[in-house]
């Protein structure tokens, strides 16, 4: 395959790409280890939950509602506005917007659970 770098309608640079993979065994092992680690971490977080706390949160769901609105309304809107203000590059804007739309990764959400145990 070839990688072509374009600016408007002008071809700026072309690079040939070679992918050589004789034995995908190490890649498959890495993938399986990562899947197992994510599953174990997810099950561990689920085991840490207390049903009484969940019932109390659902009686007054203000916190989850604020988190939902922040994650899926304010973050995408803010990332779109920052991209619009900082750059004229459409791909940069798109990447920043997609980043703003993505949910928080697992490591950031597990921190409060561990802090509650201290």
Report what the structure shows.
A two-stranded antiparallel sheet has the order 1-2. The chain has 118 residues and is mostly helical. The chain has 5 helices and 2 strands; from the N terminus they run E-E-H-H-H-H-H. It is flat. The termini are far apart. The longest helix has 25 residues, at 62-86. Helix 3 (62-86) packs antiparallel against helix 4 (90-101).
Helix segment tally: 5
Oligomeric nature of the chains = single chain
The fraction of residues assigned to DSSP E strands is 5-15%
Low-confidence stretches: none
Q: Strand order across the biggest sheet?
A: 1-2
Helix and strand topology:
Layout: E1 2-7, E2 10-16, H1 25-47, H2 51-59, H3 62-86, H4 90-101, H5 106-116
Antiparallel strand pairs: 1-2
Summarize the structure.
With 118 residues, the chain is mainly alpha-helical.
Any key phrases for this structure?
single chain; 118 residues; mainly alpha; 2 strands
